[in-house]
Structures are given as C-alpha cells and as structure tokens.
Amino acid sequence: MRRASTLLAALALLLAGCTTVPGGDGTPPPRAERWRPKPGLAWQWQLSGTLDASVDVPVYDIDGFDHPAATVAGLRAAGRRVICYLSTGAWEEWRPDAAEFPEELLGKGNGWPGERWLDIRRTDVLEPLMAERIEMCRSKGFDAVEPDNMDGYANATGFPLTAADQLRYHRLIARLAHERGLAVGLKNDLDHIPELVGELDFAVNEQCAQYRECARLSPFVRAGKAVFHVEYELAADAFCPQARKLGLSSQRKRYELDAWREPC
C-alpha cells in the first residue's frame, strides 16, 4: 500500500519558483551536520499517490524507495527538510531488495497487504540490509530517516520478541543513521521513550490522541525535539487544542497517506 509515484512535473514546479520555507533552523546544513528538528514544525506526510510538492510546510516525510534524488533535491532547494520513510521492522514484498531477506526472517503479516514482520533478533542478517537502505537515503540527499514497524515486540509477529530485543534494534537503526549524518526518529513505541529520548532526534506518532497517550510524548518536546503526529479518525477540533498545548506538530490524514491533510 505504501507506494508513491513521482512526476517530473512536480520537480519542475519546485524549480520554477515554489515558495521557500525555512527548514526549522535555517538553510539545510552540510551533510556532516545532523538535522535536529525543533518542536512545532509543520509537516507533510505523503506515502501514496503523486507527490504534491506545493504544500507550504518546512518538512516533508516521503517514501525513500519511491522517490529519486532529483525529487529530494527539489524539495531541499525550496528550503524543505526531507525525511526518508523506510519499513525497518517489516518486510514488504514489492521492494527491490525483497529477495535478499531470507524466508526464516519473515514472520506473520502485520495487517498491511504484502507485509510481514521481521525477526529483529537476527541483526547479523538485518544490519547489512538496513545499512544499504539507510545509505540509499543518504545518497539521495534525505535529512532524516523514519523507521517504521518498530514495535514488533508488542505484536503477534510469529517470533518471541522482547522489549529488550526491540530496544537493541532501535539503537542499531539509530547508529546506522547517525553514522551517515542523518537524523532518526522514534516511530510510535511509546514504551521506549524513556530509554531513547536522549538518543533519537524526533518522534513520529499515529493516533496518540485517539488512544489518550499524547502526554507520553512530552519528553521529546521538553528535550527540544519535534513530535510529528497524525490522527486518522478524530476530527481536527477534537485533538488540535491539546496537540498545540503539548507542542506537537499535528495534522489529520487519511489512512492511505495521500496528499490530503488537515493541519492543526
């Protein structure tokens, strides 16, 4: 489901004069200087459909495989920071490297068509595969990585994963990103915030308002780190007042994560 197609026209639109938006703390830095997004930054999260490059926000979160370096360069030329979405905790059958994942690493389906949980204990196999993916993000010019499906220990994966297994895997992905000068976020997995808020650069959360958990993300905001948050089922006026009070970067999206958005 998480597929996106990019038209050359989108890049042309950017290069033809899209509004320049500061990337939180100014012009995008040299690659050696890691981005550290601050609380309150507006963002666009689009993982399906033709990329709408005209949304006037300082941060874009887009699929790392589906977009070429030219798209990332166009967004950065317009002053935007760009986050590379990757599924690091689940296998996706349509990815170009899917055949490199041994069958024994593939567990139960995670609820999305064509996706299966990974045995994150097998870092001997997963580390080089994830290093290649994160290097792809770096080579395309992304500023950061959003590692998805990083809560397998709390789901029926088919493997006896523990919270300690998950914490080790979080830290592995963070190390691979930081070694390449990329920021890295905590995707959902609120239980590991105390251990990881000092090590990761931002958070991405789905539906904390619906489940009455948004206050648990406050350690990131207190640490001066952005929390990029979406709701799917609640009306904006039902969650935006609390989100603004907590300092979250919040919006309403559709489950398909197309271009439509309703920001707070």
> Which regions contain 5 or more consecutive residues with pLDDT less than 50?
1-30
CATH superfamily label: Aldolase class I
The biggest beta sheet is recorded as:
9 strands, mixed
Would you tell me which CATH topology applies? TIM Barrel
Strand content: 15-25%
Helical segment tally?
7
Termini gap:
26 Å
CATH class: Alpha Beta
Shape: globular
The counted number of beta strands is 14
Topology (SSEs and partners):
Layout: E1 4-5, H1 8-15, E2 43-46, E3 49-50, E4 59-63, H2 69-77, E5 81-87, E6 90-92, E7 106-109, E8 115-118, H3 123-140, E9 144-148, H4 163-179, E10 183-187, H5 193-196, E11 202-206, H6 218-222, E12 227-231, H7 236-246, E13 249-252, E14 262-263
Parallel strand pairs: 1-3, 2-4, 4-5, 5-9, 9-10, 10-11, 11-12, 12-13
Antiparallel strand pairs: 6-8, 7-8, 13-14
Helix pairs in contact: 1-2, 3-4
